[in-house]
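README, section 4: Worked example with a bound small molecule

Sections 1 through 3 covered apo chains. Here we extend the same pipeline to holo records, where the ligand is supplied as SMILES alongside the sequence. The molecule in this example is zinc ion. Nothing else about the input changes; the structure line simply encodes the ligand pose together with the chain.
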Amino acid sequence: MSDAAPVVTCPECNAAIGKFADVCPKCGIEITPVEAATEPNVTGDSAMSTLIPYNNPYALLAYYFGIFSLIPCFSLILAPVAIGLGIAGLRHVKGQPQAKGTAHAYIGIGVGAVMLLLNLAVIGMMIVAAATMP
Ligand SMILES: [Zn+2]
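The generated complex, written as structure tokens:
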């Protein structure tokens, strides 16, 4: 266990628990996340950050790289970047659930993966065509 890991104490049994745990592992009581309890305007903010995940630049960039990878000449360069950024975005959400951007990250990964496969298929066909040329 790292010293930097955020820890809170259980209000019921005072056991030290991870900040992002939903229930206390010792007594099983439900834990209210610190952010949700202290943030007064959490619904409006989370709705906005779901639309534009400004707290998760990886997810936002993954989304845009995914869209730009639809441009044929750029696919092979941008698609892997979109996938990588999407994975980074998902990891970011895992560490900070309030950051949002999961949808954008998945779009980046999905579009990036499809475009990468399409381009690899086209290249594969070109190689096969060139190899079977008389
Ligand atoms: Zn407890």
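What to look for in the output: The longest helix spans residues 102-131. The CA atoms of residues 14 and 43 lie 29 Å apart.

Section 5 describes how to batch many such records.
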